[in-house]
Amino acid sequence: MPVIAIDGPVGSGKSTVAQAVAARLGLAVLETGAMYRAVAVLALRQGIEAGPAGADALAALAAELDVEAFDPAELRTPDVNRAVSAVAAEPGVRAALVPRQRAWIAARGGGVAEGRDIGTVVFPDADVKVFLTATAAERARRRGDEDAEGVARRDHLDSTRAASPLVAATDAVVIDTTGLSVEEIVERIVGLL
Are the beta carbons of 1 and 110 closer than 8 angstroms? Predict the structure, then answer.
């Protein structure tokens, strides 16, 4: 089975498109953002902040993480939205989660993985690499729980972090999803196989 890497900024359509592509092809979906959000939930519960003082504690949370233990709604609160980019920027958190992401796909013999560094770091040899984007206004509209200012702040944090910054892989196909239906995007991605 193929490995399909879908990257892009917040609100670009990654999760929706990944689910639709996986359904079309009968593949499993790995939403790496949920893993980082779960670490952020734990950090908020325990009062651990990203940065030098909290780096080791955050890495330890990531190493012991059980994503299945979280209610999906708990992962999408405004507090988590504000905290997740800083938590995900921690090198120790990424070092703990990337091997687990690779193992998850390997155990299933392939799948659709979506996030910010899938085609560049997690699966640099993916069969298909796609980088989704959309206008900032469209991405904020899609999010619903984040305004344009919050989306722009997360874009900046995600694209300037030292560990695995958000960037399109050099061999990724860039798709601007503004004005496209999910079906149109899925057709383009499936056509790359």
Answer: yes
pLDDT in tens, the chain (193 residues): 899 999 999 889 999 999 999 999 999 999 999 999 999 999 999 999 998 999 999 999 999 999 888 999 999 999 998 899 899 989 999 999 999 999 999 999 999 999 989 999 999 999 999 999 998 889 988 888 778 888 888 888 888 888 888 899 999 999 999 999 999 999 999 999 9
Pairing label, strands 3-7, 173-176:
unpaired
DSSP helix/strand/coil, 82: helix
Q: Where are the domains of the chain?
A: 3-190
Q: What fold, for 3-190?
A: Rossmann fold (3.40.50)
- Asked if 33 and 115 count as a contact pair (C-beta separation under 8 A), the reply is yes
Report residue 53 as tokens.
């003082």
- For 74, residues 6+ apart whose C-beta sits below 8 A from its C-beta are 41, 80
Q: What predicted TM-score, i.e. pTM, was given to this entire model?
A: 0.89
- Region of residue 42 (phi > 0: left; psi between -120 and 50: alpha; otherwise: beta): alpha
188 vs 1: CA distance, rounded Å: 18
Tell me the CB-side half-sphere exposure of residue 71, using CA atoms within 13 A: 3
